[in-house]
Each structure stands twice: as C-alpha cells, then as structure tokens.
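INFO worker-7 received task bundle
INFO bundle size: 2
INFO processing item 0
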Amino acid sequence: MIRLLRSGTLLALSLLLATSAHAQEAVGGDELASEEAGEPIRTIPAAVGEDAQAAIAGVNRFSLELYLRTVTPGENHFISPASVSTAVGLAYRGAAGSTASELDRVFHFGRTPREYLGVNAQVLATMEFEGPSRELHTANALWLQEGMPLVPDYERDVAELAGAGLNRVDFGGAHDAARIEVNQWVARTTRDRIKDLLLPDDVSKETRAVLVNAIYWKGGWASPFRQGATREERFTTLRGDPVAIPLMNLRDHFQSVERDGIKAILLPYAGGEVDMAVFLPRSAKGLPRFEAGLDADKLSHWLHDLDEAEGRETILTLPKMRLEWRDDLVPALKSMGVATAFSEDADFSGMATIPYPGEVDDAVGLNFSKVIHKTFLDVDEKGSEAAAATAVVMAIVVTGSSGPKPEPFVFRADKPFFFLLRDRRTGLILFLGRYVSPVESAG
C-alpha cells in the first residue's frame, strides 16, 4: 500500500490579520498621504462574494486555533495560518471520505473538495497587488513525481483556480535536487526572506508530491516613525526581567480601544489595504491570560470595534522587531483532529492515479507526512516586510467632540503583546504572533 505521507508546510514573514466586519464592502478611493511621493495614495479596491466571505471567516477561525496550539510559553511566536490553509487546500481538492471530512472540520473549509478551490480563487485574487510603498503577493506550485498521473479534473482546477504551476521532478532518483528546486522557488517568491524551507530530512525517495504556497508582504507605514526618535529603552519580558531594546516613538492619530485591562490599536500601512493590530495587556505577565481567553468570535469583536473607533491623538511606542520561526506542524494538526490524512487510511484518490506504471506494485495512494512551517518578520521605522510559504510534501508509503481637547492616548508597547496583520478590505488574517522577548529583535 503506497500513500502520500510527507506534508511540509513552510511559512515566511508577515503579519496579516483582518476582521470579517468589513468583508462585504468593496474598498476603494480612500486616500493616505505618501511621505515618499508627496501625493495621496489611493487604496487598491478588493471585493469578494458571500461564498468567499465565508471562506475567509473559516481561514480566520483556523488561524487563531492553530496559533494557540503552537504557542510555546515564554517564547516569541509568528505564523501564517493563511499560507498553511492555502497549501493544504491544494491537497483537499483531491481528498475523499473521512480524509476530506477531517480536513474540512479542522480547517473550516466549509465547501466540498470540488467546490473549495473555486471559492478560494476569489480570495487569492485579492492577495495580489502592488502600489507605491507596498506590495502583496501569493503564489502556489506543485512538484510531482515524474510519471505519476494526476486526475484530469484535479490538474485542471489547481492550475486554473489556484494558479499553481506544475513541475515534474524525480524524487525517487534525485530527491535532494528536487528539494533544492523547491527551496529556490520559495526564496525567489519571498524575496529571499524564506530560505531552506525544506531541510534534507523533509524530502526522501518516497516523496511523490510537494504542494507549496508562498505569501510575501512589504509595506511602509502610513505614518512612519522618525528614526531619530528611536531610543534604547527598557522592555519588560514575560518573566518580568527588564532589558534594553530599540523602541520606536511616534505621536499621531490612530484608532484604538481600551477595555478589560487591554489596550488595542490599529497601525495602517500606506494605501490602507493592510494594517497591523496590536493588543497590549496592562501587566507584563498578562499576555498568556489574554491569549487563553481569546477565540475567533472575540477577536472578530475586537477588530470590529477597532474599525469603528474614531482616530485619536496617540503617543505610540513600539519595539523594532525581527522574528523567525520554524517547526513541524504535524503534532499541532493531529491534536486539532487531522488524523486520517497522516495515516495509511488516507484517501487522496481525487488527486493522483495510483498505482501507475513504474511505481512499486503495492502502491495504493498518498498521505501527509510533514507540515513544515517557517516564518520571518521585520518591523522598523519605515514599515514591515513579511513572507510566508507552505509546502505540503506527499510521500509514497508502502502499505471626536467640540469640548476641551482630550489628553493623548498613550500606547507604550514596552511589555509582551499579541499582534497581527490583516487585509482590511476583506478581513483575511495573513499572519499573527506575539512578542515577549528581545532575543530576536532587530538591533
């Protein structure tokens, strides 16, 4: 019995989280001043239908659930569940039976395998734009064993609906060369921010397919920090230890909300398509409690309230950050309920025809083996750069008012906080994370 068992997920830098509150609106025409060009920057519009709105809500729900499953106490964290969901969605198109049911339940796809890529194509279309001071790109690709025939409908859908390039390689005879080819594609797609996504042990002669998604974001702040205002100041870690790190400072108008011992703020990027939401507990040790009480509905409520808040004068302090993270998501996904896809009972019969001439005689199918996730984030005075890539490796397995002017709102992120980046036009969460220690901060 041969099944696809190797599932590699790879994620690069970025923060992108959006609330579903504005998912029904087509945004366009809003203007923000461009410091570089001296002219207004118009927001690039995006509109999605009701089915795509439901798909985005599912991605956002999965995003927070995966984040909470992968957080390590006392450590920084940064992931892009949107990339994971997109890569696994390529495999979901070929899933059947309990394999498909479990993936649907855990990832909240909300559509049958045959329907999902068509719906998600609308979402992918909104994740591809470029303008002054910002760019967002996403790409999908498949690397397949030479001679392994794909089911025609599957091949057509991943190419036409997901825009995935199909590449043939010889995993059986040159699996390391194939791995290097995948890594080179990921590096190019993420502007070299995600390198060596797949390590030598991630791909073997039993590998039969690698399904990859990559996301890249780079954007300047709508209100850049002045470099001269960045100073070495005290940051209190989750353990309560004071350390000196570069803290950026800015006085401007931002949308913010404060309740239940939490301050939340929206930091828009140039153009207004993407923003960063930061959630700051009052206590340096309050972040784990905030995270433990968070679910998708509560997060959506927070973001809705931030979107509705009036901008107010704010004294903002934020660390310069540089985060990198890599891990195998298999344990987390199994704990969330993905079991069959990793077992000998996996059914991806809608993807490839197995056995086929040249394959071992007792090959019967494919399954997941690894989900490798890698991320990178860089935040400084000018803006942020983010990239994400997810590789699903499949291996063959034998068997305001008019009153007095109010005091400025003070948002001083000199203690652990939770943050995310989102596409404000659609509400899609692209990345989310936590910053609790300066160990990985930018110097």
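INFO item 0 finished
INFO processing item 1
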Amino acid sequence: MRMNAKLFGIVLCALAAAACSGNGDDTPGTGGTGGTGGTGGTGGIQTSTVTGIVVSRDDNEAAVVGATVEVFGTEISAITDGDGLFSLSNVPNGDVFFVTTATGNWGTVDYYGVPDETANGVNLRVVPDDEITAVDGALDDRTISESDGFVDIVFEGAEGGETGMISASSDAPFTFNSLEEPQIQNGIIVNALGEGELFFSSVDPAVGTVTATVEGVPNVTDCDVDESPGTTYPIMAKSITIVYAGCRPAQ
C-alpha cells in the first residue's frame, strides 16, 4: 500500500505533509473522485481519468492555482483551476510518475498506481521557494541550486538510525532533529509515528534517473525501497523526487 510523502516533514510539517497525516493525514481524496478506468489506449493499453488537487507544503496547506501537472514521459498534462483542482484524461494504467510544478515553488516527482491508488483522487504538492531557502540557510557549506534536483527518501515504520543511498552524486544527506532543525548525517531521525525522511540535494538532472537503496538498523529493522517502476526515479531541475521505503521489525 502506498505511503504518503512528507516533504521536509518536520520543518515543513509545520510546513509538511505526509506525516502531518499524522502529517495531517494527507490522505488523497480532497482532489475529487477519481475517474473510471478507460478502455482506450493505443495498442490496447488500458487508461483512466485521474483527478486531484495541488497544495502548497507550508503552514496554510493552500490550494495552488495555475500549477501544471504532467504524466512523466507523455504529453498528458493539466493546469489547476481556481480551486487548485485538475483532471487528466487517458492516463495509462500502472505505476505512473506525476510531475507537478508551479511558479514560486519547487516541484515534485511522485508516483501512484493507476487506477488502484487514484480512484478517490490524488493530493499532489509543491514546496514554496522560501521554505527551501530556509533549509539552505540552516545548513553550513551548502548551496541549493534551482538548476539541480532533490531526492527525498520517505521512511515508514522506522525506529531511528535507518540509512539510505542514491546512485547519483549529491551533497551529504540531511535529516531533521527533534528540534525541527535540518542536520547532516547518514541516519534519520523519526517522529513518534515511526516516520522520517532523508534528503539528498544538488543532484544533477543530467543523470536522468537514479536508483535508491535503504538499510535498516541491525537487529532492529529491515527496510526496502518499494512501489516504484523498476526502482528508477526521474531527476528534474528544481524538483523533489520522492522515494518510498518501508521498514518493519527485523526478523
């Protein structure tokens, strides 16, 4: 089952989302009811209509007007209306990356299984520029450039100390401590709900795609990257690519 992305969970949880599900319970559905599965598709590919809403990852969780939502690798796109809502027709069924961008924000690259995880609508998100600037300013010897991408590994079921790596060069990964401050380290700090994030900045979009690996805490947790098409994730400039990892008690 798909997990929700936190996106700078603690600093943005005031600013953030998924674990504000706890993360504020960022359950999709605000964006309206999903479309029914289509019969179309060139070559017999089944398609569906996907509806949803784009929101800003800040204290207000405001709907974003004029955001662009695209189905990665296709020409399918839509622009959000005055309520932040969108509708995409003829979306291929299966694991699909949705690329969301908006002026004055960092975009996101997130995926859902269509239509199983989109039937009730999807909640996509962007991160205001000033929130990224605040994180940048809190980290020494680092400059986050809009020409680079981000990778956010979202852990669920973690206990603290889990680690992750990506296949591309990046700045040293950072997480958030209990004071809601970003700190550079290879492990993650988790909240009471057993969730946490590990961020990799300054990833060059020229690499095209990355893979990710995660490790649990020895004798405490086992973790795996899950629910991704081939575990390969697109990297785009001024966008945060979300990777999901699930952890469970070590066997």
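INFO item 1 finished
INFO post-check item 1: DSSP finds one helix and 16 strands in the chain.
INFO post-check item 1: Residues 9-42 have pLDDT under 50 and may be disordered.
INFO worker-7 idle
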